[in-house]
Amino acid sequence: MGENDVMPVGDVGAQPDQPWSRRRLRSTNERLLLDRLRSAGAASRAQLARETGLSKPTVSSALAALAEAGLVHEVGTHAPERGRVAVLYAPDPSAGYALGIDIGRGWLRVAVANLDGELVARADVRNRARSSGALADLVVTTAQQVVGNSGVGHDEVAHAVVGTPGVYDAERRRVRYAMHLPGWGRAGLVDRMREELGVPLEVHNDANLAALGEYTYGVGSGSRLFAYIMIGTGLGMGVVSEGRLFTGAHGGAGEIGFLPWPGQQQLQTLEDAVSGVAVVESARRFGMTGQLTAKAVFDAARQGHPAAVKAVGLESERIAHTVAAAAAVLDPDLVVLGGGVGHSVDLLLRPVRENLRALTPLRPKIVPSRLGEDAVLLGAVATALGTARDVVFERRSAP
């Protein structure tokens, strides 16, 4: 079949001899080969022809075009037992770059990755911003420094993704429900960062990105439906089904921190009961004194401090209720515990599982995050890469 091996989908009436139609056929063939090389690794022309069903002349022509565009390159040779030595091709990771940004209350993490997903530069800086404007400045300045230190040209960064607490309202272009970042919901902040960075930028909830990061690089790989529960300054959940995020009608799916929870004097939220702040409050109520953080409470519990042990026990009960609620609504095959509190799974995992058995017959597998504090950043990178690869292909393959 040669150059017309693959017909463009949904264009039944197109005439293959028309110039625009031939370009679309070539582009479709090139994208097919590029996707195959990216998903399954380096291959020879003969191997690509066998696996894709394209003719060898079509594969040769498409690879030549991809190489000329800088999208693939030769990475070695393969010497079969019989026949000639074959050249192996792979995607060129330096054809473009993606930018991932994780905005947290305590830390700002920024990384640049090539199209293979390899981090080529990274910075982790303390978030000491005292206003939303100062935080926006810190994001832009840090991102620009990371790109500059990477040796990557600014115009080579094809796409950027920001992870932040709260829910991004695309219609109003502002973040909602970022309770622990005062003023972060102010209109114009996202537009300002996008303009000053000069890179196409999208914003996602941090727990959602952590879930995608864990699915792509961590323990969630291969899961049919899993929930990532982020327990730190706040409480959030990301849900990945068949490799795709489930965000709900308005982006609020997974905002389990808003669930009501009975308090001692008044109705509170689940976030009030489960977050790191709740661990500190429980420890104080049980008799601990001094400058306390959630980490300090967990460290004291490891040393057998009675009040800390009781606080951690109460936290495990409440996390079990959180998992039970997620299990009843979602029926996940896997629940991943992450965030700052999630780092203390050595103390939490067994009692959470035991409490869950007493609460519900629904018992998903519960495991700690493999990515730890990098989950949101790597999820942002993975999401940015998905778009960056498309953008780079369109730019470089355009006639």
CA distance, first residue to last residue: 23 Å
Q: Major beta sheet, specifics?
A: 5 strands, mixed
Give the strand order of the largest sheet, numbering strands 1, 2, ... along the chain.
Answer: 6-5-4-7-10
Give the % helix.
40-55%
What fraction of the residues are assigned to beta strands by DSSP? 15-25%
Shape: elongated
Q: Which value, in Å, is the CA radius of gyration?
A: 25 Å
- Helical segment count: 13
Query: Which segments are poorly predicted (pLDDT under 50) over 5 or more consecutive residues?
Result: 6-15
Arithmetic mean pLDDT: 91
Which structural category do the helix and sheet elements fall into?
Answer: alpha/beta
Order of helices and strands: HEHHEEEEEHEEEHEHEEEEEHHHHEHHEH
**Strand segment tally:** 17
Secondary structure: elements and pairs:
Elements: H1 19-40, E1 43-44, H2 45-52, H3 56-68, E2 72-78, E3 86-91, E4 97-103, E5 107-114, E6 119-126, H4 132-150, E7 157-164, E8 167-169, E9 174-176, H5 189-197, E10 201-205, H6 206-217, E11 225-231, E12 235-241, E13 244-245, E14 260-262, E15 267-269, H7 270-274, H8 276-285, H9 294-302, H10 306-330, E16 334-338, H11 339-342, H12 345-359, E17 365-368, H13 375-397
Parallel strand pairs: 4-7, 7-10, 11-16, 16-17
Antiparallel strand pairs: 1-3, 2-3, 4-5, 5-6, 8-9, 11-12, 12-13, 14-15
